[in-house]
Amino acid sequence: MHFSIPETETRAGDSGAAAYVAYNIHVNGVLHCRVRYSQLLGLHEQLRKEYGANVVPAFPPKKIFTLTPAEVEQRREQLEKYMQAVRQDPTLGGSETFNSFLRKAQQETQQIPTEEVVLEVLLSNGQRVKVTILTSDQTEDVLEAVASKLDLPDDLVGYFSLFLVRQTKDGAFSFVRKLQEFELPYVSVTSLHNPEFQIILRKSYWDSAYDDDVMEHRVGLNLLYAQTVSDIEHGWILVNKEQHRQLKSLQEKVSKKEFIRLAQTLKYYGYLKFDPCVTDFPEKGCHVVVSAGNNELNFQVRLPNEQIKEGSFKVTRMRCWRVTSSVPMSNGPSGSSPGKSEVKLELAFEYLMSKDRLQWVTITSPQAIMLSICLQSMVDELMVKKSGGSIRKMFRRRVNGALRRSDSQQAVKSPPLLDSPDASWEPMAKLSSKLTSVSLRGISHSSSANDVGANDFHGNYAFEGIGDEDL
Which of 123, 162, 197, 255 fits a 20 to 30 Å CA distance from 173? Predict the structure, then answer.
């Protein structure tokens, strides 16, 4: 998540109280909440109390007299660095103290009272699941409610997540971000004031071996099947005519497991496909379609000479990555959409092109945050696997030891049979030629560390295990 405090506001106090300075905290370039210095100071003191002064970063000091405009600006910058440092610390950033502070501030800023509401959550097949929640329910609460409505077993809930998406004209989804523990899903989606933004349920793991766990249960199988059909229909998974014929035959036989097994063998199975954007690799200004999956970022690059090349960057060869906003962010109306023109987000990663040669690769995209989330989750999954663990887990929030179960369940509808394959998919694959660090020449110079601000820096623990045999 990209935290920033791009500006301040002078706001009138309640009941005739003196005016005060509010600091606008943005997440991914969108206003999340407005807070006072005293509120952040209270958060800081609570974190110090719980975790110790040696763990919590330094906090901007109090001032006796009213701040000058220059001092307000200085404090804004200091508070921004403080929030970024806390968020990036695994202990502090994942603490209930930090997350509950942000949830409460978000609800107060949007002035949404705590009350019971009905929230619609989409499934991959377009089916709408209506759940009754509180406006103050956090992400885990809403995920729990959806699981209850669908009758998804407790031990499979951890395999799925809620995502904020924007529905495109062709019915596909542009992923904005995975909903986090510091936000209230109802408030997050309604405060955008745009019906194109919706919440969708999708699997949250990358290794297709975990599909076996999900397919053990009827509801898990149906969710995975619906997602797979949707990904094929939208061209996220490449299918030739013969494979399409086999898949359709399995659909007609209602052989869902066999359908998924065949899909697992296809190119880009389990990948998230992002909107077209711009990269500086292999040269500046190249248009690219990025897909994330199979522990890599896949590039389909259109070069200036209109030639299309394809290649992949393995997450295990990324030493680190960072997300930055390359221009100052200005505050638009509270309903402004993520990724609008006032925010230029970039994801830059340092990649091991060959032994002893690291190079920065930059992607300029409104979805840079979502790309970063994908990379981090891939690394987390790899580290769990390396330690001999499993992502199978019971859902953390319990009511009397079990998930709250809805009085009425809703079945996952089976998607319709696949349409005829798009004739343009196969030629596109044939046009693509492999893009590797060996065959390409004249690669533009990488940006130095000074060119990109470390606003959202991620070291890659999975990188440490790379040896010569991996190159």
Answer: 255
Q: Which of 307, 302, 277 is nearest to 292 (CA)?
A: 277
Distance, C-alpha 45 to centroid of its chain: 30
Helix, strand or coil for residue 471? coil
What's the pTM value of the predicted model, to 2 decimals?
0.83
Pick from 454, 375, 461: nearest CA to 84:
454
Q: Cα(6)–Cα(227) distance, rounded to whole angstroms?
A: 38
CA 295 from centre of chain: 15
Distances in Å between the alpha carbon of 106 and those of 15, 109, 173, 278?
Answer: 22, 5, 25, 32
Collapsing DSSP to helix, strand or coil, 388 comes out as coil
Place of tokens 């194109």: 196
Task: Annotate 59-121 with DSSP letters as a single string.
Answer: -PPP-SSPPPHHHHHHHHHHHHHHHHHHHHSHHHHT-HHHHHHHHHHHHHHHT----EEEEEE
Contact 159, 391 (CB under 8 A): yes
* Whether the Cβ atoms of residue 435 and residue 301 lie closer than 8 Å to each other: yes
- Is the distance from CB of 444 to CB of 279 less than 8 angstroms? no
Give the pair of three-digit tokens for residue 409.
């369940």
pLDDT tens-digit series, residues 223-235: 999 999 999 998 9
The helix/strand/coil state of 379 is helix
Tell me the mean pLDDT in the region 314-319: 94
